[in-house]
Amino acid sequence: MAWLYLIIAGLFEVVWATFMKLSNGFSHLGWSIATIVGMIASFGFLAEATHRLPMSLAYPIWTGIGAVGTVLVGVTLFGDQVKPLTWLFIGMLFVGVIGIKLTTGSNQ
């Protein structure tokens, strides 16, 4: 269950970052509130995950999910331009997150 909480926390990180972009510098109340709710959800699920997973494992995976996810959202929804070499490093980040999970030996 801890891994599920961690994945949900990472997804909410993508959600709040997207909502923050849509809030236009917190100038739109609805998107601003949604951003804060997303942040609370993300931190809440991360806190639940760290009850059972080591912080040294949970935090980098959480940030990795958020980083890769926000790049994908930025490209698909907002038309952000990403250079080919940058895609290589994004792929390395993704592989790193998977590698951390596979090498922990943790079945929690």
Automatic annotation (TrEMBL):
One Gene Ontology CC term in the entry: plasma membrane
TM segment ranges: 27-47, 59-79, 85-104
GO MF term list: transmembrane transporter activity
Keyword list, A-Z: Cell membrane, Membrane, Transmembrane, Transmembrane helix, Transport
SUPFAM superfamilies registered for this protein in UniProt: Multidrug resistance efflux transporter EmrE (SSF103481)
InterPro entries on file: EmrE-like (IPR037185), Small_drug/metabolite_transptr (IPR000390), Small_multidrug_res (IPR045324)
A Pfam family annotated for this UniProt entry: Multi_Drug_Res
Compartments where located: Cell membrane
Record keyword Iron present: no
Primary location: membrane
Domain of life: Bacteria
Topology in membrane: Multi-pass membrane protein
Protein family: Belongs to the drug/metabolite transporter (DMT) superfamily. Small multidrug resistance (SMR) (TC 2.A.7.1) family.
Name of the protein this chain belongs to: SugE
Organism per entry: Schleiferilactobacillus shenzhenensis LY-73
